[in-house]
């Protein structure tokens, strides 16, 4: 038997063992896995995906609830009407846009520099602006087709924008119009009433989720407090050749470009919520390196200034261009 054939058989057997795990054991294992890894696991095979993304399975709900509680404690319990897995997956902003992948953050990689992705709870999508615009349609555009009646869209969720037309999800509009056209006139009233009731329930969920999102600035505040703590800790351990005061060292640290970017730049500040412990360690390393560079430059400038003062002291108060020191300079 060839080595290649043996390796193939071994890998096939290993894969079979994994797939033959009882669902109860699999459920217990998954409870200790972070949500972002549960998403990766759901892409391994159809069986895992069925177990992890089942729409109405108590075991699935329990897996995601436990994982959210253990690893994403800042996220509240989802409101009635939205599943644990949907609610948690939408909150995983570091996964980036669910359509194009823009804004994806490597949890063990470089510092995130911006957060171009946003959760649109009205449509229950996590999307960048470009992908959103490709998948929505304005009410003005819909009304250009005179055959479309307003009450055909009355049960559809829409996004309100200041001084701009409402926008609807294109697929929702297409499905609603298709259903409306195939319906008997006597059923239209009940169909509209049922859709309005569903819309009211969806709006309640959207309102709840948006209110939770508005409370996120409080979480960002804690991130900034942690950022200041990092600066203070660094200011106590960095070399202080010039024997400067504690506050002066901290001021020097605040001049480091990475700190300025993450403390002042709005785009980078919005990425603060994507920072994990690995990124915090990376941040400290970068700040320490930048401070050392600035310190070495400051030492060089201090020596140059000291040399200038010594040379300047050699120049007599009354000098002429014929003096040797003046000619030397």
From TrEMBL:
Listed InterPro entries: F-box-like_dom_sf, F-box_dom
Matching CDD domains: F-box_SF (cd09917)
PROSITE patterns, alphabetized: FBOX
Ranges for domain F-box: 15-67
Protein name as catalogued: 14608_t:CDS:1
């Amino acid at each position: 038997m060839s080595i290649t054939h043996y390796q193939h058989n071994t890998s096939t057997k290993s894969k079979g063992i994994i797939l033959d795990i009882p669902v109860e054991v699999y459920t217990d294992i998954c409870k200790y896995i972070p949500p972002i890894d549960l998403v990766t696991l759901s892409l391994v095979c159809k069986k895992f995906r069925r177990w992890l993304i089942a729409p109405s399975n108590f075991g699935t709900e329990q897996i995601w609830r436990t994982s959210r509680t253990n690893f994403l404690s800042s996220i509240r319990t989802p409101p009635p009407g939205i599943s644990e897995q949907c609610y948690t997956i939408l909150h995983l902003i570091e996964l980036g846009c669910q359509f194009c992948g823009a804004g994806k953050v490597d949890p063990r990689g470089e510092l995130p520099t911006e957060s171009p992705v946003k959760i649109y709870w009205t449509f229950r999508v996590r999307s960048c602006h470009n992908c959103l615009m490709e998948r929505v349609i304005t009410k003005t555009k819909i009304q250009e087709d005179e055959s479309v009646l307003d009450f055909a869209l009355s049960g559809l969720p829409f996004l309100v924008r200041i001084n701009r037309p409402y926008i609807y999800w294109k697929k929702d509009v297409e499905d609603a119009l298709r259903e409306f056209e195939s319906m008997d006139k006597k059923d239209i009233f009940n169909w509209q009433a049922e859709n309005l009731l569903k819309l009211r329930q969806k709006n309640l969920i959207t309102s709840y989720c948006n209110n939770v999102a508005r409370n996120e600035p409080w979480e960002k505040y804690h991130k900034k407090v942690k950022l200041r703590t990092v600066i203070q800790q660094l200011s106590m351990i960095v070399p202080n050749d010039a024997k400067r005061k504690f506050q002066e060292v901290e001021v020097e640290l605040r001049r480091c470009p990475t700190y300025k970017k993450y403390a002042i730049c709005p785009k980078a500040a919005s990425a603060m919520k994507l920072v994990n412990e690995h990124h915090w360690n990376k941040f400290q390393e970068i700040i320490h390196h930048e401070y050392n560079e600035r310190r070495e430059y400051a030492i060089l400038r201090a020596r140059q200034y000291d040399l200038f003062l010594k040379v300047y002291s050699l120049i007599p108060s009354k000098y002429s261009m014929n003096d040797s020191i003046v000619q030397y300079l």
